[in-house]
Amino acid sequence: MSRSPVTVVGLGPMGAAMAATFLRSGHPVTLWNRTAAKAAPLVEQGATLAATPAEALAASELIIISQTDYTAMYDSLGGATGALKGRVLVNLGSGSPNELRRASDWASEHGADLLPGGIMVPPPGIGRPGAYVFYSGSESVLDRHRETLGELGDATYVGTDPGLAMLYYQAQLYLFWSTLSAFMHSIALLETAGVSAEQYRPFASDLVGSLASDGPMGFLRIMAEEIDAGVSPGGANSLRMQAVGADHVIEAAREAGIDVAGPTALRNLFWRAVDAGEGSNGLAGVIQAIRTPETAAS
User: What value, to the nearest 5°, has the Cα angle with vertex 115 and ends 110 and 118?
Assistant: First the structure.
């Protein structure tokens, strides 16, 4: 069975990995990159290097854009807008949600469909089990190319708003980064008492695993339910008590001589929620402070 052609614009580590994945699956692949020399290894594998962006757009209906930001897309394709008509631009670069919405309008003005995406895997994981990509925009356009896009990872559709894929992407990145940063802070704290990272790791693994479980410590589920219901029961485990505990984490970090910026930001968030009247409620009450930025409250 013949595979549909794909054009890949941008050959950084992510774009090159995607192009190689399509080639292995038997898709005819056309490439365009501002630095043409980067295409050489993929051309050796059977890809075609287009001489111009217009030539790259003409080669395929499905255009995969893997560039640093949306400005790069305009820089690359802005001089070839006449070739955009009828094309599906799958932009897997990063940007703000509003930037993606404006880009969707720009594509529509030139007769193209934009499918913004957020790819939740590093380059070596492209096309491997567990890889997935958030998409938003037109679901019918996604469905038309779902099989091909599935070569990169599970195509996870999140809604019609073009900016929604980036919101999911950034939410996941923030959760990922902040969790691992907290893990490193915990390691640094324990290191001052001679505890190794590997000695601590099983305890961290148990805690993180329990948070995602359906058991009594499954706080991801518990907090999602409470936040959606607009409740935050405190009882014997009030937010005020946890804010005091956050003070003690900072004291311990200072005594250990390690950085306190992360714990201080968390402590300040807790106390701001307490000062706003959430002290007798539970930890889910912190979301009220998150929803109301400090600059808006001052």
Answer: 140
